[in-house]
Amino acid sequence: MATTESVPRSKRRATSGKTQGRRAELLAIAAELFATKGYTQTTVRDIGDAAGILSGSLYHHFDSKEAMLDEILRDFMGGLHASFAEIVAGRDTPREVLEGLIRSSFATIHRSPHAVALYQNEAALLAHLPDFSYVATISSDITAQWLDVLDAGVASGDFRDDLDARVTYRFIRDSVWGTVGWYKPHGELAHESVADQFLSMLYGGLLPR
Amino acid sequence: MATTESVPRSKRRATSGKTQGRRAELLAIAAELFATKGYTQTTVRDIGDAAGILSGSLYHHFDSKEAMLDEILRDFMGGLHASFAEIVAGRDTPREVLEGLIRSSFATIHRSPHAVALYQNEAALLAHLPDFSYVATISSDITAQWLDVLDAGVASGDFRDDLDARVTYRFIRDSVWGTVGWYKPHGELAHESVADQFLSMLYGGLLPR
Amino acid sequence: MATTESVPRSKRRATSGKTQGRRAELLAIAAELFATKGYTQTTVRDIGDAAGILSGSLYHHFDSKEAMLDEILRDFMGGLHASFAEIVAGRDTPREVLEGLIRSSFATIHRSPHAVALYQNEAALLAHLPDFSYVATISSDITAQWLDVLDAGVASGDFRDDLDARVTYRFIRDSVWGTVGWYKPHGELAHESVADQFLSMLYGGLLPR
Amino acid sequence: MATTESVPRSKRRATSGKTQGRRAELLAIAAELFATKGYTQTTVRDIGDAAGILSGSLYHHFDSKEAMLDEILRDFMGGLHASFAEIVAGRDTPREVLEGLIRSSFATIHRSPHAVALYQNEAALLAHLPDFSYVATISSDITAQWLDVLDAGVASGDFRDDLDARVTYRFIRDSVWGTVGWYKPHGELAHESVADQFLSMLYGGLLPR
DNA sequence: TATGAATGAGACTTCATTCAT
DNA sequence: GATGAATGAAGTCTCATTCAT
C-alpha cells in the first residue's frame, strides 16, 4: 500500500492567519464552480467574478488555476483517506466496518459535495496531469481499504462467497459516489436515510424473502 | 411522457450513400476522443489528426464541433430509448423486464462505450447547452421506463415494498452505467458475466442466507 | 418618428476615467481603418498593429470587432441627429434651416470624415446585421428632419413647388455626403467654401440668369 | 487622355457558343450578389448556391472570384466610356451634351444597377488591387469627358462662370450615381422622370424665380 | 461539366498569466 | 491586495481554391 499519510503540500504559500480566511473563501468558490461547470469550463474570470475581484488578482493568492484544484483535491482526499483509516481501525467485524465506510461516504457527500463531484467528474483530466498523480495513489489506497474489508468479510462468512469482490466493490463504489449527482444537501432526504436505504438494499437484496 | 420516437435529425446535411461512410468514420473517431479526453479537452485538431485530415476539413462534413457531439448523442439516445421500449413491451413479469433492461444496458456499454461515457461524463456541459435539451428529455423518458418497472414489481410482489423506488432506481442506474468507467470490451470479463454478477448481488443481497 | 434621443449604450463596459482615454484612442484608430479599407477588409490584427498592441489585447477593451463598429456608429449617429435637431429648432425660415443643415453636414464631414465614410460605405453590411437596426432608425429620423424642412419651404414659397421633395432630398443628400469621398480635411479647399459652392449651385442652378 | 477603346480581355478563357450563355448567367448572379452583399462579403459558395451548383464547379468557368469581378467591371466600364464618347461626339452645344450624359447615366443605372453599385461601393477595395488599375484609368477618362463639357459650357456662356467646374462635377456625379442606392428599376418612378427632376433642379435651382 | 473531399492560409476570439501602478 | 493593460498561445471556424472521379 502506498503511504499517503499527511499529504505534503509543498507549494502552498506561506500565509498569515488573516489571509487563510480569504484563501478558504476563494477555494470554496472555485470548488463550487469547478464542480458545477467542470474544471476546464470554469475560467479564472468566472472565479474572480464570483469572488468580486478581477481574475488577475487571484494570482496574489494562488500560483495558478491548477494550484487551486490541487489544493481542493489534496485537502479532500487526504481527509477522506484518514477518516476511512479511522473507521477500519475502530470497528470489529467486517460488516460493521463496511457499514461505517458507507455511512461515512454518504456523510462526506453531504458535507463536501463539490470536492466529491470534482473527484468523480474530472477523472479523465486528472489522469493526464502529472502533478495530480497523488490522486491515483490515494485512490488506490482507498480501494485497498475497501477490498480488504470485503475480502475479510468473505473469509469470515459475513458476506457471500460467490461474488467477485473486485466487481462487487465497483458496483458499491459507483452507487455510493454517484449519489453526489442527485443528492441535495439541503433537501428533504437526509444523508442518513440515503445510507439506510442503500444498506438495506445492499444487504438484503431487491427480492422479498 | 415526452414523445421521443425516432429523434428528428433536422439539420443533418443531405448526403449521398458514399458520403455516409466517411461521416460515420469521423463520428466514431470523434466519439472516442470525446469519451477519452472529454469534449472540451478534445480539439478539432485532435480529431483531424486522428482522421488524417486537417481540422478545417472537418467542416466539410459537419457544421461545428458541437454538431458532431450532437449527432453522436442523438443517435445513441434514440437507439437506447427504442431498445428499452422493445424490452418493456416484449416481456411478462416486472422481474423479467428489469433483468432485460439491465442486461441490455451492459450490452450497450459493451457495444458503445464511447457514447455511454459521453452521456455519463458530460452531464454538466450538456445542461448548459440549449441545443442539447433533448438529452434531458430522453433521459426523463428512460427514467420513467425504469421506474414503471420498479413500481409494477413492488405492486405485484416481485420486489420488496420497503424500498423507495426512486432511490433504488438511482442506485441501480449509477452502478450499471458507472461500469463504463472500468469495463474493458476486449478484456477477460464478458459483459454477460458482469450482468450476472450484478443481478446476483441486486436480487440476493450481499449477505449469505 | 422614432424616438432616438440620447442613443442608449447599454452594453458599454463600466469604465473609470482613465480607461476612457484608451478606448477613445483605439476607436479612432479603428474608425480610420474601417473607413479606409472597409470594415470587413480590416482585421483585428490591423487594428492591433496600428495601436501597437496584440490583436487579442483589444478584447480587454471591447467585446468584439463588431462592438467597436457599433460604438463608433452609435456615437456618430446620435450626435448627428442631435445637432440637426438643434438647427431645426433654432432657425426661422425653411431656407435658413436648410442652409444650416447643409453647412452643418459639411462641417461634420470635415470633423468626422471616418465615421461619415463608414456610414456611407457600409450600408449593405449594416442592413444584414440585426444589432445595427438603430442605424436605419436614426437614418429615418434624419430623413424626416430634412423632408420636413423641404415640405415647409415648398408650402411657404421659399422653394419651388414643381419638384418632388423626396427625390430632391435624395439628390441633395447624395451630393452632400458623397463629398466625404473626395474632400480633404487638411487640403486647400475649406469646408465652408465647399458649402458655399454647393448652396450657390443648389439655390441658383447651373444656368446663368 | 488614356486610351481605353475596346478594353482588352486577355485572360478570358476560350469558349464555345453554348458556354457563353452559362458564363453570362453566372456573371449576372455574381454581380447581383456582389452588389447586394458586397464583394468581400459574398462567398463563392453564395454564388454557387444561387446558381444551383457547388462552389468548386465555378472554377470550370472562371479562374477565380476576382476574375468574375474583373469581367463584370471590364464589360461595364468599357461600355460606359464608349456610350459617353458617342454622346460627346454626336451633339452640338455643351448644354445638350451634358443633358445627354446625365440622361444616359440614369438609363445605365436602370439597365445595369448591379454593375453601377459595384463601381460605386467597391472603390476602396479596387484601389488596393493592382489588377484593377484600369478602373481608375477609365474613371479618369470619364471624368475628363464630363469636365470638358462643363468647361466648354462655361466658355460658351451656357453655364454660370462663378462655379468651380471640378467641384460642380463632383456634386453632379455623386447625385447621379448615388441614385443607384434608392432607384428601383421595376418601381413606379421611371428613370426618365428621375432624369427630368434632376435636370430641372440642376438647371433651374431650388428657388422659385 | 459537375461533384465531393481536402487543403492551407488566415480570420475572430478566448484565456491563463504577468506586471507596473 | 487589488487594478487595468497587455501578452502569447491556442482554439474554432471560414473560405478561396484544387483535384481525382
How would you explain this protein's 3D organization?
The structure is a homotetramer of 209-residue chains. The first copy, chain A, is mainly α and 209 residues long. Chain A folds into two domains: 13-62, Orthogonal Bundle (Arc Repressor Mutant, subunit A), CATH 1.10.10; 64-204, Tetracycline Repressor, domain 2. In chain A, 67% of the residues lie in helices and 0% in strands. Chain A is built from nine helices and no strands. The first copy, chain A, has helices at 17-37, 44-51, 65-90, 94-111, 113-121, 123-128, 133-156, 165-178, 191-204. In chain A, helix 1 (17-37) packs across helix 3 (65-90). Chain A is elongated, with a radius of gyration of 19 Å. Chains in contact: A-B, C-D. Chain A binds chain B through residues 36-38, 40-41, 121, 123-125, 128, 157-164, 167-168, 170-175, 178-179, 181-182, 189, 194, 197-198, 200-208, and chain B through 36-38, 40-41, 121, 123-125, 128, 157-164, 167-168, 170-175, 178-179, 181-182, 189, 194, 197-198, 200-208. The structure holds a DNA duplex (21 and 21 nucleotides).
